[in-house]
Specification:
With 542 residues, this protein is an alpha/beta fold. It has four domains: 2-127, Response regulator (Rossmann fold); 158-308, 2-Layer Sandwich (Alpha-Beta Plaits), CATH 3.30.70; 323-427; 446-538, Orthogonal Bundle (Arc Repressor Mutant, subunit A). 61% of the residues lie in helices and 11% in strands. It has 23 helices and ten strands. The chain has helices spanning 11-19, 37-47, 63-73, 88-92, 109-157, 162-171, 199-221, 243-265, 283-295, 297-300, 308-311, 323-335, 338-355, 359-379, 384-388, 394-397, 404-444, 452-459, 463-474, 478-496, 501-507, 513-524, 528-538; strands at 2-7, 28-34, 51-55, 78-83, 101-104, 180-188, 224-228, 234-240, 269-273, 305-307. α2 runs parallel beside α3 (63-73) and α12 packs across α17 (404-444). The relative contact order is 0.04. The mean pLDDT is 86.
């Protein structure tokens, strides 16, 4: 509901206007009336009504003076002049004092109702317009940080002119003053200390917490700004008078950020510092260098401040590793030599670290090793899926690893898994071959010509490898096992048959009965004849 005041020195006029209108019907509230301009000024100051309906000719302060007073002090208040015909030209002068309208006396109730209807509609429209404006203003204020961040990210892409940048700096109240500028990127190493039940939420909160720390540090030191890029990493831009002091400040700021994050968030970050540039237009170059510096975490490890100035020029011309290293690693995997796997993998990673290769080339080198390992397994008839439980995923998995220390552990585990698989398969095959050998011996022990060479020829194995496999499986050499089988069979025949000793000797593969007797006594402690006699007497041989 809008408020209205009546000012007229004629009491009858005031009463007539007051009593002939249902003010609430037109969305108005009559808040007061005065008989002169002086009293009206005091009431306006107190009530600040939306509408003042005033006569022109009044004692002390007339309608024109009152109009000027109101429109100067309360421009939102509308003043409507009531005037007689002889005062009409005088009333027209009120226009220069910004009076809303003037009405000729005598005024009827219907005329006033029409005016009130019009006023109410206009005030409604104005109120709606003001509400829309305030709503837009609120939205703008709420969106300002987003718009500001979006603009700063556009600077990093390098598609902004100097004039546009400074225009936006003024709009967003960004103060970066100096002849040198430098970009810093802060990237989380991991968030393993945070609850992983809602990883996306926790990750977003953690990134924001890092930004908040950076923003506080930069606000305290001044002449800099912190914001988040499209990947939620925090970017800091600092300004200064010269490149030397600015770079020194950047290093100190980066160290402070790193230490503060670790202290308060219990996680680590890697901070990359770009090269200084002489114009804010070129800050995107500095930022690219800062990104590259963070990438060197792969070589240097986590929880570090890495300045691109410290890295440039260190690249070695010596290749990280050659074919011989890869060959040695594959041999160690095939032979199951764990100590060799550890030693070679450590050396490979050390060489890669000392080479200062770019992260892309480093990943390529590791992938090349993985390809050789998979190739070696394929040559042996085993697929990547069989050995590692996945197919084609190892080469992309490399990209999820952030440091060479982690790569070393990952590669060692990969090699040991491959080696363990081959060893297991080798053991399985050895067991099968050993059992085949046992079956062969038990089927052919009668043959006096059975030998190590004959059984190896049958199994398609070398004598040395067979001897090792057989001994590991049975705990006996081939001769020991064959002899035991023959003597056990001889004992059985001595117990259940009337065969002569020489006949039993021939039956179990010994052509020389005397040699058979010597072997039998050596194993059983009795000659064949003694063994039979004792069994017949006691029913057993002890």
């Amino acid at each position: 509901m809008y408020t209205i005041m009546i000012v007229d020195d004629e009491g009858e006029v005031r009463e007539g206007i007051k009593n002939n209108i249902n003010w609430a019907e037109y969305n108005f509230e009559l808040v007061g009336d005065c008989e002169n301009g002086f009293d009206a000024m005091e009431m306006v100051d107190k009530l600040q009504p939306d509408i003042v309906l005033t006569d022109i000719c009044m004692p002390f302060v007339d309608g024109l003076e009152l109009t000027k007073y109101i429109t100067d002090k309360y421009p939102q208040t509308r003043v409507i002049i009531l005037t007689g015909y002889d005062e009409f030209e005088y009333a027209q002068n009120a226009v220069k004092y910004k009076a809303y309208d003037y009405i000729l006396k005598p005024i009827t109730a219907n005329e006033l109702r029409k005016i009130l209807t019009k006023l109410s509609q206009e005030l409604d429209a104005e109120k709606e317009k003001l509400e829309d404006f305030n709503r837009l203003k609120l939205l703008l204020n709420e969106s300002l940080p987003i718009l500001k961040e979006r603009f700063l990210n556009r600077i990093l892409s390098g598609n902004q002119t100097d004039n546009k940048i400074h225009e936006k700096f003024e709009q967003f109240n960004i103060k970066l003053v100096g002849n040198a500028f430098i970009a810093i990127e802060i990237d989380l190493d991991d968030n393993s200390s945070f609850d992983d039940t809602q990883p996306e939420v926790e990750d977003e909160l953690l990134h924001f917490a890092v930004y908040n720390i950076c923003e506080t540090i930069i606000s305290d030191s001044g002449n800099g700004i912190a914001f988040q890029n499209s990947n939620e990493k925090t970017v800091v831009i600092l300004a200064g008078e010269d490149t030397l002091s600015l770079h020194d400040r950047a290093v100190k700021t980066a160290e402070e950020i790193k230490q503060t994050v670790e202290k308060h968030l219990k996680v680590t970050v890697t901070v990359g510092i770009g090269m200084c540039c002489s114009s804010i237009v070129d800050i995107h170059h500095s930022y690219k260098y800062a990104e590259s510096a963070v990438d060197y975490r792969f070589l240097l490890g986590k929880n570090r401040v890495i300045s691109i100035n410290d890295i440039e020029g260190k690249k070695s011309e010596k290749p990280a590793f050659n074919k011989e290293w890869r060959r040695k690693l594959v041999v160690a995997i095939k032979t199951g030599t764990i100590s060799e796997i550890d030693s070679i993998t450590t050396k490979l990673v050390e060489n890669l670290k000392e080479s200062y290769e770019s992260i892309e080339k480093s990943y390529y080198q590791i992938q090349n090793i993985v390809i050789h390992i998979i190739g070696a397994l394929n040559e042996l008839g085993f697929s990547e899926l069989e050995v590692f439980g996945k197919e084609g995923g190892l080469l992309t998995e490399v990209y999820t690893i952030k440091t060479l220390e982690e790569i070393e552990d990952w590669l060692k585990n990969l090699c040991k898994k491959a080696s363990g698989y081959l060893t297991g398969k080798r053991d399985d095959n050895s067991l099968i071959q050993a059992k085949k050998a046992e079956e062969y011996i038990r089927s052919n022990y009668r043959d006096p010509n059975i030998s190590l060479n004959s059984i190896c020829k049958h199994l398609l194995m070398s004598t040395s490898y067979f001897s090792s496999v057989f001994k590991n499986h049975t705990g006996q050499t081939f001769i020991e096992y064959l002899t035991r089988v023959r003597i056990e069979k001889a004992m059985e025949l001595l117990k259940i048959s009337d065969m002569k000793v020489y006949e039993i000797s021939e039956e179990i593969g010994y052509n020389d009965p005397h040699y058979f007797s010597l072997i039998f006594k050596k194993i059983s402690g009795n000659t064949p004849s003694e063994f039979r006699e004792r069994y017949e007497e006691n029913g057993h041989v002890s």
